[in-house]
């Protein structure tokens, strides 16, 4: 089992307990355990294999949790979960995840309307029956319907970071099987899309049948959806679907181009082929019946007079025109990032200390970093001005011991509903860099929200607008906001826009980044790390930046420290 599979079990228990209105401490214990497991750098299976290792040494894992982990490891299931599943209808978990609902309301729907599935919830909402329950009303009912629709629209897509858990072990397994020559992933996964519908793998092999056997026998497969001589499909236990195609060596490049897509990109290059009286498909480029290219991608593009195009750009957003004109961007690379400009510590909702975060950034070779704990508007965890001053003294102290990294004093300042900031100007004046963002009151009109944010951006000390649209992939739509207007105000007032690298944020999105770049607005790629391990999320940010056509020059935190500080003062 992967760590995330263990974590999912504990999350499910916590959800079910919450619907049952169980003791909050018990619920929290399961959630803490899930979080610990999810972010371990070592696999639980390998820890369990080690006689010496003690699970209870892990944070949030007591005796009881350790026993449950062992039970899961040994039996593949958990009695406690099975019992709960008997007691609570499984569909209520989905019901509870609809925005505006939650465990308490899911419980109410169950008690009062006997709703146990999304389908039943939808019928009840369409028949106006939710309004009759206390605490519900027409607004909530409309919101529930919208939530169900949104859920359906994105059903089945995996976040790229989740696919990244399941794909590498499968590739390793396949590469170790007999007779494999080339093996690569194509499709949206190769283009580094923020979510993937399924995984497309291409293989060349001495013997197609034996690689197909290995594929359908993959121990992590839940079911075999199709099995053929050159194409098979499986569904993994995680629910992720994988297609595997075996192709001839002389067609490998053509198949990579075709199955990498996107569909829209393929259509454009097919048009170009036609202009040249050529035919292009997954087998190659043909003049009449003669194969003129197919072995490598470069050869295929060259046959239609194009340079090789990076997969991240293959979205029909101008890449073929740019390729023709020799104007393809030289995309940013991960190694060019010199600092991380958003992260949290134990002062607010982060899990590690200032010093630990500094060590994490040094380990990644950064020259600068900003500690950006939340301001007071963030309920429960936000800091008051005095807390920031205390933290800044600690930063001075830590800084005095390191001369290879600059620790910038900062805050993630909340934008209030009226566009003012949740921290006073005298404190802002003590900061090296100021990051602002919206964390509450999302239900505004597009015009109001845009005015709110642009007003905050015009505060003379503000440097960076963080996660500008507030969306959470697969969980929350962006708040209504005019991103074009944000880009314009950013250009006019020298504000940088953040690309937040949290795999469920990736905000701004790729096409917004392209918009920012075209307007000459600098982008900052930050991780918003809440622990040092999350500093590695930068890879997801860089992937999306590449999809947004960004070059080194477009990204402020590729600058050396002095140049970056100069940008802040512009
Ligand atoms: P996904 O799986 O929804 O995240 O997105 P993709 O891009 O991986 O799409 P998928 O798995 O349906 O197909 C893989 C690639 O195969 C796709 O990017 C382009 C190519 N392809 C599939 N169907 C067609 C088609 O009808 N026409 C063309 N031109 N290409 C296609
Ligand atoms: Ca796919
Ligand atoms: Ca596919
Ligand atoms: Zn934040």
Automatic annotation (TrEMBL):
SUPFAM superfamilies per UniProt: DNA polymerase beta, N-terminal domain-like (SSF47802), Nucleotidyltransferase (SSF81301), PHP domain-like (SSF89550), Sec63 N-terminal domain-like (SSF158702)
Substrates-to-products reaction catalysed: DNA(n) + a 2'-deoxyribonucleoside 5'-triphosphate = DNA(n+1) + diphosphate; 2'-deoxyribonucleotide-(2'-deoxyribose 5'-phosphate)-2'-deoxyribonucleotide-DNA = a 3'-end 2'-deoxyribonucleotide-(2,3-dehydro-2,3-deoxyribose 5'-phosphate)-DNA + a 5'-end 5'-phospho-2'-deoxyribonucleoside-DNA + H(+); a 5'-end 2'-deoxyribose-2'-deoxyribonucleotide-DNA = (2E,4S)-4-hydroxypenten-2-al-5-phosphate + a 5'-end 5'-phospho-2'-deoxyribonucleoside-DNA + H(+)
Domain called DNA-directed DNA polymerase X: residue spans: 1-315
Pfam families referenced in this protein's UniProt entry, alphabetically: DNA_pol_B_palm (PF14792), DNA_pol_B_thumb (PF14791), HHH_5 (PF14520), HHH_8 (PF14716), PHP (PF02811)
Domain called Polymerase/histidinol phosphatase N-terminal: residue spans: 339-417
Cofactor list: Mg(2+)
Source superkingdom: Bacteria
A single BP term in Gene Ontology: DNA repair
Subcellular location as annotated: Cytoplasm
Entries under InterPro entries matching the protein: DNA-dir_DNA_pol_X, DNA_pol_B_palm_palm, DNA_pol_lamdba_lyase_dom_sf, DNA_Pol_thumb_sf, DNA_pol_X_beta-like, HHH_MUS81, Hlx-hairpin-Hlx_DNA-bd_motif, NT_sf
SMART domains: HhH1, POLIIIAc, POLXc
EC identifiers of the protein: 2.7.7.7, 4.2.99.18
Ranges of residues in domain Helix-hairpin-helix DNA-binding motif class: 53-72, 93-112, 128-147
UniProt GO MF annotations: class I DNA-(apurinic or apyrimidinic site) endonuclease activity; DNA binding; DNA-directed DNA polymerase activity; exonuclease activity; phosphoric ester hydrolase activity; zinc ion binding
Key words, A-Z: DNA damage, DNA repair, DNA replication, DNA synthesis, DNA-directed DNA polymerase, Exonuclease, Hydrolase, Methylation, Nuclease, Nucleotidyltransferase, Sodium, Transferase, Ubl conjugation
Keyword Ubl conjugation belongs to the record: yes
GO cellular component terms attached to this protein's record: cytosol
Role description: Repair polymerase that plays a key role in base-excision repair. During this process, the damaged base is excised by specific DNA glycosylases, the DNA backbone is nicked at the abasic site by an apurinic/apyrimidic (AP) endonuclease, and POLB removes 5'-deoxyribose-phosphate from the preincised AP site acting as a 5'-deoxyribose-phosphate lyase (5'-dRP lyase); through its DNA polymerase activity, it adds one nucleotide to the 3' end of the arising single-nucleotide gap.
Xref: NCBIfam families: PRK08609.1
Designated name of the protein: DNA polymerase beta
Gene behind this protein: polX
